[in-house]
């Protein structure tokens, strides 16, 4: 159903338009998130050309992710005020400029600045957190699967772009590859942005959420998520986001370099990264459906435990075929973790604050990816192998699982006390 007032068309949640918009969001995120993944493919060539250590070559990724996180909050606030179309158009210009500037960089410093400011802060950032928040406003039923489909664009970028980038790096070099990507991604993203003119329907002021239990109606107090103050609850989710993504970054950022060190070559590593993130798409979709059944918090717990299992498997196996299998399992196990944070926020915090709180938690997951990318490189430089880096990732992963278990314990205790909460 839609109504027309002057030239404004108001579309309803869960409408056909919402589904079309979701499909376009998937495409925008696939194009806009490319910068997160191609820098890993470029890492060996950039390190060799600039003659820097592995940790220094990993720094552009780290600062890109930091910019990506801060930019997501900034662009999200801008989208709340003027709609998502104009930020997307701005992001397309800065993404193109960032890729071209990267291709023209004369040293690791200029390379890093272009990645952090243009690609991360002002370019790719608009294609993640703001789009996740926007999608959550267009769906009421099946919000979990809708957010999962949206977030899959981030992993679809990881599945599509690494082999493409690796091919062109081998054919024309990393500089020309970046310049070509700047032209293609900038134009494509700008054209897609034009379809996002419509604003989400206004949200009615949320009434207290209630659930029936044993003939009694229990009211969920969203001013005390998990029975904690909102600041404490938000802080725990942010720490959990950092911890899970420090662990997640180890294989995603360093699998190409790891395969090169093992003698398999960067092309094999790029294929493993593509396989990993391709299975991550499957994981996000399946986890979205699971999330609609068991809630965001249990989905987070499940993903954290399974990710830890996959990281443990990297320790005893380093053959080519086992690495392909473990890469697929890693993608399949951890793909649903990050979207679950958005659902947890929508389930436990006031809806009117969801945009800012979703953006903040997702920013901290990106900080975790940034820290994990750099930390794994630093551990490698100190030890000469990735074995200790995998152990470091496992330790951080256990922090994430511990926080999820603590919050689940709080939820169950509140239920026993007669307070209805989602888990």
Structure characterization notes:
By secondary structure, the protein is mostly helical. The chain is built from 15 helices and 4 strands. The strands form 2 sheets. Strands 1-2 form a two-stranded antiparallel ribbon. It has a two-stranded antiparallel ribbon with strand order 3-4. Helix 1 (16-32) packs antiparallel against helix 8, helix 7 packs antiparallel against helix 10 and helix 10 packs parallel to helix 13. It is globular and about 60 Å long. Mean pLDDT is 86; it is low at 1-7 and 204-219.
Concise overview:
The protein is built from 15 helices and four strands. The protein has helices at residues 16-32, 35-50, 54-82, 85-103, 108-121, 129-138, 143-172, 174-193, 230-262, 266-294, 296-314, 320-334, 337-348, 354-383, 387-416, and strands at 2-5, 8-11, 209-213, 216-220. Strand 3 and strand 4 form a beta hairpin.
């Amino acid at each position: 159903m839609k109504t027309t007032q002057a030239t404004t068309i108001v579309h309803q949640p869960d409408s056909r338009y919402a589904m079309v918009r979701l499909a376009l969001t998937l495409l925008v995120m696939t194009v806009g998130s490319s910068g997160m993944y191609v820098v890993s493919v470029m890492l060996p060539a950039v390190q060799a050309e600039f003659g820097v250590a592995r940790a220094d070559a990993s720094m552009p990724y780290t600062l890109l992710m930091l910019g990506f996180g801060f930019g997501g909050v900034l662009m999200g606030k801008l989208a709340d005020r003027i709609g998502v179309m104009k930020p997307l158009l701005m992001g397309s210009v800065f993404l193109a400029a960032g890729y071209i500037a990267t291709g023209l960089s004369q040293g690791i410093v200029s390379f890093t600045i272009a990645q952090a400011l243009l690609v991360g802060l002002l370019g790719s950032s608009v294609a993640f957190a703001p789009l996740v928040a926007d999608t959550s406003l267009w769906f009421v039923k099946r919000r979990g699967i809708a957010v999962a489909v949206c977030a899959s664009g981030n992993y679809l970028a990881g599945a599509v772009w690494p082999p493409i980038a690796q091919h062109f790096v081998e054919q024309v070099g990393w500089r020309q590859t970046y310049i070509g990507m700047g032209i293609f991604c900038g134009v494509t993203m700008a054209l897609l942005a034009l379809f996002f003119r419509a604003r989400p329907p206004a949200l009615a002021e949320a009434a207290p959420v209630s659930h029936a239990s044993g003939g009694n109606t229990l009211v969920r107090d969203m001013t005390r998520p998990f029975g904690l103050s909102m600041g404490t609850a938000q802080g725990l989710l942010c720490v959990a986001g950092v911890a899970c993504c420090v662990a997640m970054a180890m294989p995603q950022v360093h699998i190409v370099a790891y395969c090169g060190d093992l003698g398999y070559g960067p092309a094999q590593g790029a294929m493993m990264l593509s396989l990993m993130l391709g299975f991550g798409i499957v994981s996000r979709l399946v986890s979205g459906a699971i999330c609609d059944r068991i809630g965001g918090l249990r989905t987070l717990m499940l993903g954290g435990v399974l990710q830890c299992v996959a990281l443990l498997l990297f320790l005893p196996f380093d053959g080519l075929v086992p690495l392909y299998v473990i890469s697929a399992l890693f993608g399949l196990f951890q793909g649903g973790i990050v979207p679950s944070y958005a659902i947890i926020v929508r389930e436990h915090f006031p809806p009117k604050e969801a945009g800012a709180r979703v953006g903040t938690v997702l920013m901290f997951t990106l900080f975790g990816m940034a820290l994990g990318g750099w930390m794994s490189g630093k551990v490698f430089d100190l030890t000469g192998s990735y074995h200790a880096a995998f152990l470091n990732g496992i330790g951080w992963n256990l922090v994430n699982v511990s926080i999820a278990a603590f919050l689940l314990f709080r939820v169950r205790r509140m239920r026993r006390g007669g307070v209805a909460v989602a888990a």
